[in-house]
Write a structure and sequence with these properties.
By secondary structure, the protein is mainly α. Helix content is about 55%, strand content about 5%. It has a domain of about 80 residues: Double Stranded RNA Binding Domain, CATH 3.30.160. It has a 3-stranded antiparallel β-sheet. β2 and β3 form a beta hairpin. The relative contact order is 0.17. This is LIX1-like protein. Belongs to the LIX1 family.
């Protein structure tokens, strides 16, 4: 029975007579769901509040709705202010090495008992380029990802830029207001009820979308918004890939899916399965993979320049590149 249940909860989709798969229907290609909104179509959940209120400056022109009016300099000033404040309180006045400061911050968290599955190591990834601007991504120990948000003439500057925005988010994430508490849950559920014209009985029923939303929040009580966003990334990817719809068609309940994936880290097994799904889609609809990859790269750049958390966009790109590599290997053999 457990083996059958586990099989039903595997990510993936199966092409059917209606089309090539859930991932290619609905919203136009490239329009990724906002954080949390991914749960709506697949599980009937209302979107949770955004994880951080730090992403104020607009994305570059053409990035679409959701940008807040204001010059890009606002983000740079905010980041510099946080870095200076962090330096003053930890090392005294003077120039701070943000790369070292970010690493020390997470080592401090680990020494104080933070549960970091993969240790406190901060990982950097440079985008291959022969000339400026250079781009760097930084992945925090919990999985959150940020990128250089300025024009960077050198690789070292790109690394520092990524470290600055990651340090800013790491520091703000420690504020008590970023924790999921009973008061936060009640406020979020009340706002969801108002937005969806629901009633209080729905919030207490785990079989409704809002009830499942409450279940997710209560399961993560005490966690920070950044930690909650890391969990949401898994569900965003499952929705984007069509897996949530496929699970529903396999008669998986909301509670089963939430309980299973709330405690499962995003791993290579999930990535490989999703990449295989995109290989199958490309074989069903030639060109689907390249179109999705182009749209994903645009979204990633826009989010990076706006100083946003990038895990969802970055994972999408990596999965699509993995699928492209698998297709290339198949063709060469």
């Amino acid at each position: 029975m457990e083996a059958v249940r586990a099989q039903r909860l595997q990510p993936g989709w199966a092409p059917g007579p209606a089309g090539p798969g859930p991932g290619l229907t609905g919203a136009p290609a490239g329009l990724a769901p906002a954080p949390g909104a991914a749960l709506g179509p697949g599980l009937g959940l209302p979107p949770p509040p955004p994880p951080l209120g730090l992403q104020g400056p607009p994305a570059p022109p053409g990035s679409g709705a959701g940008a807040v009016p204001g010059p890009p300099a606002v983000l740079r000033e905010a980041v510099e202010a946080v870095v200076r404040s962090f330096a003053k309180h930890t090392q005294g006045y003077g120039r701070v090495n943000v790369v070292e400061a970010l690493q020390e911050f997470w080592q401090m968290k680990q020494s104080r008992g933070a549960e970091l599955r993969n240790g406190a190591l901060v990982l950097y990834e440079m985008v291959p380029a022969a000339s400026p601007p250079y781009v760097c991504y930084v992945t925090l120990p919990g999985g959150s990802c940020f990128g250089s948000f300025q024009f960077c003439p050198t690789k070292a500057e790109a690394r520092r830029s990524a470290a600055k925005i990651a340090l800013m988010n790491s520091v703000f994430n420690e504020h008590p207001s970023r924790r999921i508490t009973d008061d936060f849950i009640e406020k979020s559920v009340s706002e969801a009820l108002a937005s969806f014209n629901g009633n209080r009985e729905e919030a207490d029923n785990p079989n409704t979308g809002i009830g499942a939303f409450r279940f997710m929040l209560e399961s993560n009580k005490g966690k920070s918004m950044l930690e909650f966003q890391e969990l949401m990334t898994v569900f965003q990817l499952l929705h984007w890939n069509g897996s949530l719809k496929a699970m529903r068609e396999r008669q998986c309940s909301r509670q089963e899916v939430l309980a299973h994936y709330s405690h499962r880290a995003l791993d290579d097994d999930i990535r490989n399965q999703m990449a295989l799904d995109w290989v199958n889609r490309e074989q069903s609809v030639p060109g689907a993979l390249s179109r999705e990859l182009a749209a994903t790269e645009r979204e990633l750049d826009e989010a990076r320049l706006a100083g946003k958390e990038l895990r969802f966009h970055k994972e999408k790109k990596d999965i699509l590149l993995l699928a492209a590599g698998q297709l290339g290997s198949a063709h060469s053999s």
